Structures are given as C-alpha cells and as structure tokens.
C-alpha cells in the first residue's frame, strides 16, 4: 500500500514538473528522479507560516519538491523542553522519511537546528541526506537578545542561577544555555546540549554518533550580523572560552575528540561552512541570496 501510494504521488509531481519547465535539463532530471522531499523545522517563537519565502525559493529552483514545514511547538510552545520537542518532531518526520525511498533533506532554523541534531542522534534508521543548519546555536547560547526577554529579571551574567536548575531545564533556552563562566554548572545541569555533545557522561554516545554520521552532508550557515545567536560562531560550532574569546570549531574539544562525528565529517569532506554577512537573525530563511549561496545546491 505504502509503496504504491509513493509511486503515485511521485508520478503526479513529476508530470507537474515536466509541464512547468519542459526545456530545462535540470527539470527533466527532476522529472525522472524526483528531488528529495524537504522537511523544515522552525525555531524559537516561529511557526510554519514563517517559511513561505523559503518554500517559494525551493519551488522555483527545484520544481516539484515536496516541502513540509512541521507545524508543531509553534510560538510560545517552542519554549517547551528540547527533548520533548525532539520526540514530537521526530514522530511527525518519521513517516515522511519512510515515504521517501531516496531519503529526505532537512532544513532546521535557529533552535530547530538543535532539535534536528537531537533527532539525528537518536533515530537509528533516519535517511537524512543533507542536514542544513540555518543559524542555529549548535554550540550553545550566551547573550542577551530580544529573544531572551522572556526572562526580564535576568541578564546573561546571572541567568545561570535560573537555567542551571531543575525548573530552568524545563525551558528550551536553558537546555542549551552555555555560560562560559559556569562550566561546571553547565556540565552538571544541562540536560540537553551537554548530553548531545557527550560533555556529560552519556551511555549512548557511541550509538548517537553512529546515528548522526548517517547524514551525507552537514551544512552550517551563519553570519556576523545575526544579532541573536551569540556568539554568532555558535552556528558553526565555535564558542566562547572563559575570557569570552571565541574559539573556532577546529580548536574545540568536541571537535578534537570527535565526540559526535564533526571531525569524521570534515575528513569525509562532508562538512560545509557557509558564512554570509549582512543577514539579521529573522531573515535567514527569507533571504534569496542566502538560499542561492548556501542552501540550493544541497537540496538534490
Ligand atoms: C510552484 O511554482 C509554480 C509556477 O510558478 C506555481 O504554479 C505553483 O503554485 C508553485 N507551487 C507551490 C507549492 O508554491
Ligand atoms: C508530500 O509529503 C507529505 C508527507 O510525506 C505527503 O503527505 C503528501 O502526500 C506529499 N505530497 C505530494 C504532492 O506528494
Ligand atoms: C557537579 O556535580 C558533582 C558530582 O555530583 C559535584 O561534586 C560538584 O560539586 C558539582 N559541581 C557544581 C558546580 O555544582
Ligand atoms: C540511552 O538509550 C536508552 C535506550 O534507547 C534510553 O532508554 C536511555 O534513556 C538513553 N539514555 C540517555 C541518557 O538518553
Ligand atoms: C584570559 O585573559 C587573561 C588576562 O588577559 C589571560 O591571562 C589568560 O591567559 C586568558 N585565558 C585564556 C583561556 O585565554
Ligand atoms: C540578504 O543577504 C545579503 C547578503 O548576502 C544582504 O546584503 C542583504 O541585506 C540581505 N537582505 C535581507 C533582507 O536580510
């Protein structure tokens, strides 16, 4: 049943493609093979409506692509704990994967980039081809920005008092709050990022690394004018040392020890950095230059 449904939907989208662009080789190729479905996971305080432009860009460059923006944990629900979001998004994405014989591509924006990393680490039979991380705080967050006004009584220097507690860990932001001046508290209390990075003892780290490394490409997109992700290099696994000097990924322990596979990906030639200046945080998914420079070619 599943197989025949799949063949039918593929044929339908292929016919549409041929009608749209009968003269273009790329489109004919798409008609024969089909582009992989794209799944989009949104970030903090967003919802699926924020991705209309991205859907348009994909439809224009790769007509016929089936794009699904997962409509879960919208707006203030996006403050729910990260593991809960991982389970929710995973349940929604898994059937899409099962319907996609050639695999899917994932575009995960902002906090969604960390949700996706949780899914990829804990789902042993995922078939994600490109994991596109769009300005996501992959190495954590340490900065006061508009997004963090949910905690009006705190600033970055004292938010650890709240975040590194049992109650704090019920809020998504605290799950990846990474205070470089309170490393011990982070290691002891972060129930998400420290575990995902195996910075905290994780009995499943070997398994998680194996799962994560099933991706074919990791594309890390970010830029210096982001204004929300702090430091912006966190989008590419750079982070502050205890002097708040940014240490690039290549000098981070989690890279050097290949804790979850970053070094393996580099050795395989499958880790791509794409840095773009002049883009504020809320524009990453709607900026056509970003799409053409950093995303388009990884959606095959
Ligand atoms: C894709 O583009 C075509 C041609 O511009 C348009 O007719 C179609 O409605 C678009 N599909 C989506 C899902 O945006
Ligand atoms: C697009 O993908 C979704 C999720 O797998 C599926 O329900 C839907 O039927 C697909 N649409 C088309 C036109 O193939
Ligand atoms: C972290 O946990 C260990 C073991 O439970 C404890 O000895 C240590 O004091 C904790 N450190 C902090 C900063 O809470
Ligand atoms: C490790 O995996 C097991 C089995 O999948 C699971 O029950 C357990 O919660 C995982 N441990 C952690 C720390 O996530
Ligand atoms: C931090 O800064 C101090 C004073 O500038 C310096 O002595 C120290 O070596 C620095 N530490 C690191 C880890 O760079
Ligand atoms: C889109 O990105 C380009 C840089 O590639 C930048 O110059 C431009 O200002 C951006 N536009 C918006 C609306 O962010």
Automatic annotation (TrEMBL):
Broad class of the protein's primary localization: other
Provenance organism: Austrofundulus limnaeus (Annual killifish)
Subcellular location: Lysosome
E.C. code: 3.1.2.2
Keywords per UniProt: Glycoprotein, Hydrolase, Lysosome, Signal
Gene Ontology cellular-component annotations: lysosome
Role this protein plays: Catalyzes the cleavage of thioester bonds from S-palmitoyl-CoA or S-palmitoyl-N-acetylcysteamine (unbranched structures) but does not have activity against palmitoylcysteine or palmitoylated proteins, branched structures or bulky head groups. Conversely, hydrolyzes both long and short chain fatty acyl-CoA substrate.
Superkingdom assignment: Eukaryota
Record-linked Pfam families: Palm_thioest
Protein name as annotated: palmitoyl-CoA hydrolase
GO molecular function, one term: palmitoyl hydrolase activity
Entries under InterPro entries matching the protein: AB_hydrolase_fold
Record's signal peptide: none
Catalytic activity: S-hexadecanoyl-N-acetylcysteamine + H2O = N-acetylcysteamine + hexadecanoate + H(+)
Family: Belongs to the palmitoyl-protein thioesterase family.
Keyword Zinc: no
PANTHER family to which the protein is assigned, alphabetical: LYSOSOMAL THIOESTERASE PPT2 PRECURSOR, PALMITOYL-PROTEIN THIOESTERASE/DOLICHYLDIPHOSPHATASE 1
């Amino acid at each position: 049943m599943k197989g025949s449904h799949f063949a039918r939907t593929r044929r339908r989208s292929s016919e549409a493609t041929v009608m749209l662009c009968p003269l273009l080789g790329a489109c004919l190729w798409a008609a024969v093979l089909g582009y992989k479905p794209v799944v989009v996971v949104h970030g903090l305080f967003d919802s699926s409506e924020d991705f209309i432009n991205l859907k348009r860009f994909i439809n224009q460059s790769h007509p016929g692509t089936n794009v699904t923006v997962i409509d879960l944990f919208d707006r203030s629900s996006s403050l729910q704990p990260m593991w809960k979001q991982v389970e929710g998004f995973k349940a929604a994405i898994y059937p899409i994967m099962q319907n996609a014989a050639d695999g899917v591509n994932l575009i995960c924006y902002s906090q969604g980039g960390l949700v996706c990393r949780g899914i990829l680490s804990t789902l042993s039979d995922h078939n994600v081809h490109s994991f596109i991380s769009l300005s996501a705080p992959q190495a954590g967050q340490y900065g006061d920005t508009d997004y963090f006004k949910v905690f009006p009584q705190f600033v970055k220097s004292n938010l650890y008092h709240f975040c590194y507690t049992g109650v704090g860990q019920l809020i998504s932001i605290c799950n990846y709050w990474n205070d470089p001046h309170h490393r011990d508290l982070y290691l002891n209390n972060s129930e998400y990022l420290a575990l995902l990075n195996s910075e905290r003892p994780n009995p499943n780290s070997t398994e998680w690394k194996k799962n994560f490394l099933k991706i074919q490409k990791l594309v890390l997109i970010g830029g210096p004018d982001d204004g929300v992700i702090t430091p912006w290099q966190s989008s590419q696994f750079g982070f502050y040392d205890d002097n708040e000097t940014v240490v690039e990924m290549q000098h981070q322990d989690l890279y050097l020890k290949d804790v979850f596979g970053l070094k393996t990906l580099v050795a395989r030639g499958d880790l791509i950095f794409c840095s773009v200046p002049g883009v504020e945080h809320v524009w990453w998914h709607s900026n056509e230059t970003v799409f053409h420079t950093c995303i388009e070619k990884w959606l095959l």
